[in-house]
Design brief:
Layout (H helix, E strand, L loop, with lengths): L2 H7 L6 H18 L4 H29 L3 H7 L1 H4 L4 H26 L2 H15 L13 H21 L6 E5 L6 E5 L1 H28 L1 H6 L5 H5 L1 H24 L14 H14 L5 H28 L1
Antiparallel strand pairs: 1-2
Helix pairs in contact: 2-3, 2-8, 2-9, 2-14, 3-6, 3-8, 6-7, 7-8, 8-9, 9-12, 9-14, 12-13, 13-14
């Protein structure tokens, strides 16, 4: 397997979906909590990217194994198209999983066992999103799992690692006595959750756009996603609603003091986002329709990052 084929197997171009929650989590830690720990942050980044690549490799592996269409299996799926060894792909997945486990255990030992709980939940959903007799991605809740796992999971873990001194949420565990105590600050936890909502919505929309585009193909391959149950028209309405709800979440967050006024720069992207939503609806089910979800996510979250960065500068003045 060449390096180029490896990057295709793990779909490296899609990793932006996990990088956004990470970077925004770092900026939110600085702007809202005024705390940052670069060592933990960089180690987590390595583990996060490798795990994201692992779940994508598992996804392609399982799609190849379960494919009912020979055209998809050998002409579209990267494993069949590149004639990759199934055993080699399986070994690669195991190695990447072990690397992620090592990173998780190291950071949990350094920062507290709450990370092991959160990381375990994220990894469980990430693996079984595409693995198993009935993968989560083939169920009508795929958008929920992808949005919450990446939008909330990665974001919350990043904030947790960067606020270890304040202990916004913390799990104390005494292995000798068996006692444990979960502590935290309610308003901090609510702020973290609320700040993750735009990430949850924009990431869920990527899966939703994929399912809107591939409805007929998914049915042929026995993948009964949310769009199969609610129909393409209602799926389009949901797609548009989630995107617009991201702006509403920012506005409400500003009102309650979660953000500072520079975050309003996000609203300069609204006209372009609305235009993309209209173009997305017109282009379905053409393959190019999916690109509008990517464009919207990048545009919105780029401005989200910029708004938080400007807030940090504003607070330092």
């Amino acid at each position: 397997m060449t390096f180029k084929v490896f990057l295709e197997l793990v779909e490296i171009r899609t990793k932006v979906a996990s990088i956004f929650p990470f970077i925004i989590g770092v900026l939110f830690s600085i702007s809202y909590f005024d705390e940052i720990h670069w060592g933990y942050t960089l180690v987590f980044f390595a583990g996060m990217i490798v795990f994201d690549m692992t779940t994508t490799a598992i996804n392609n592996f399982m799609d190849f194994q379960k494919a009912k269409s020979t055209t998809y299996k050998y002409n579209e799926n990267v494993i069949g198209r590149q004639q990759l060894s199934v055993e080699q792909v399986r070994r690669l997945i195991i190695v990447m999983l072990l690397f992620t486990l090592f990173i998780g255990l190291f950071l949990s030992y350094q920062t507290g066992w709450m990370l092991l709980v959160m990381g375990g939940v994220v990894c469980f959903i990430g693996i079984f999103y595409t693995y198993g007799p009935i993968p989560l991605s083939r169920m009508p809740l795929g958008e929920v799992f992808s949005g919450v796992t990446m939008g909330l999971g990665i974001f919350a873990i990043t904030v947790y690692l960067n606020t270890v001194n304040q202990k916004a949420f913390y799990l104390a565990l005494d292995w000798t006595s068996g006692h444990f105590a979960l502590t935290g600050q309610l308003w901090s936890v609510l702020a973290i959750f609320w700040a993750s909502l735009p990430l949850i919505f924009t990431i869920a929309n990527i899966m939703l756009a994929n399912n809107l585009r591939d409805l007929e193909t998914d049915i042929k391959n026995h993948r009964y996603t949310l769009v199969y149950y609610i129909g393409r028209e209602k799926g389009i309405v949901l797609f548009q609603s989630l995107m617009l709800a991201s702006y509403l979440a920012i506005m409400i967050g500003l009102f309650f003091g979660i953000y500072q006024w520079p975050i309003l720069i996000i609203f300069t992207t609204l006209p372009k986002i609305v235009k993309n939503l209209k173009e997305h609806k017109k282009s379905l089910p053409h393959p190019r329709s999916f690109s509008y979800a990517i464009k919207n996510m990048i545009l919105f979250n780029d401005s989200y990052m910029l708004g938080l960065l400007l807030s940090v500068f504003w607070q330092s003045i």
